[in-house]
Predict the 3D structure of the following.
Amino acid sequence: MKRRLFVILISIVTLLVSLCGCGEDSADYSDYKKQMENFFESVTKLDEQMNDLNPEDDNSVEDLFILLDELEEQFKYFADIEVPDAYKVTESLADESYEYMKEANEYFRQSFSENSYNEFTLEAAYECYSRANKRMHYVIDIIHGKLPEDENVTFE
């Protein structure tokens, strides 16, 4: 009888501990999800603003630089988000994404420095920008339970 009571008590304690742990994970995930949603909304808004720029406007290059600075800040925010254990694989992708966005911003500035145009640094900027966005989309896929589909992505 005592053994049975002991087993039941151990079972209850184990259940309570596991439920408390699930609550923390849910709270962590909820916070993570909210931060990610904020990031995606900000990036979408900045993308729309960039697409709305008029290249004929005298201030378009300066306006683009302002938006690129804001975009780089958002990607830094993305890289700094605390990632729950279940999504730790996305942490390095977010870090890489930020590094590529930072490089893209530098190359964009070099492309249009001192009212000149450099096609080669513009290509490099676009490549870095594409890599940053690709990694961001990998994170989106992983969060939604999908494996990224790309010939350069391998899983062990």
Notes: The two ends are 49 Å apart (CA to CA). The domain at 25-143 is CATH 1.20.120 (Four Helix Bundle (Hemerythrin (Met), subunit A)). Confidence is low (pLDDT under 50) at residues 1-24. Residues 107 and 124 are 7 Å apart (CA to CA).
